[in-house]
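can u pls check wat happens w/ adenosine-5'-triphosphate
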Amino acid sequence: MNLLEAKDITKIFGALTALDKAGLVVKENEFHGLIGPNGSGKSTLLKCIAGAEIPTSGTITIGGTDITTATSPERSRAGLSIKFQITAILPQLSVYDNVLLSLQAGESMGRLLTSKSRRSLDPKVLELLSRFRLSDRPDELAGALSHGQQQWLEIAMALARDPKVLLLDEPTAGMSPQERRATGELLAPIKATCSLLIVEHDLDFIKDICDSLTVLDQGKIVATGPTAEVQEDPRVKEAYLAHA
Ligand SMILES: Nc1ncnc2c1ncn2[C@@H]1O[C@H](COP(=O)(O)OP(=O)(O)OP(=O)(O)O)[C@@H](O)[C@H]1O
Ligand SMILES: [Mg+2]
């Protein structure tokens, strides 16, 4: 079933048309990759879906509900979670507290004022730390983690509130090949409960983990469909390799 649908999205910045009637569909329990050359509009499309930008025209729905102009809390309630290109962890807090805070973001003020909240969320924090290979350092300051571990921490935080769709913008940028491989392994199990829309430059990484791909070039969709088909599309090879 279609879960997330972006239709005819146009985004104009001054004289620049960053997105020109672009769209994509992410199905339930699907990993969907968004690729394209620098400046092709990938982050802008992700931001429109996340609500960080409002499209000039076009519509975005989740499970049939229109969220084109919805607020952040409304998008979150609809099941959306995002990790942007720039890391948003709190470096002066412990690894544990970073995850705890992202869980508490869904709690009522009444519960936050009691210590119950922290105690009852403890198993979930530990489970997320374990899934993202951070169990051995809950008390370390998040800012002291390696670059790769900070990305994993942020993905764990983005998953804290059990989203239906996780949006990731270049999570493996700056990672070593080993960290990149590990990221693929860490993401794979989330498919049981969540869909993924992921922007990546590394075609090898993305084609290994994604069921389907959408290719943007200069704000327009060049191709979309199952990974095996899209990566063989001559227009994709041309658009991608010509600029890469
Ligand atoms: N807030 C903004 N104001 C003006 N122009 C913008 C803004 N955000 C993006 N752009 C422009 O829109 C175009 C698409 O940018 P976008 O960041 O979406 O590309 P991208 O595909 O994510 O690129 P990269 O691969 O470098 O991350 C670029 O020409 C960019 O300069
Ligand atoms: Mg980008």
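The domain at 1-79+163-244 is CATH 3.40.50.300 (Rossmann fold).
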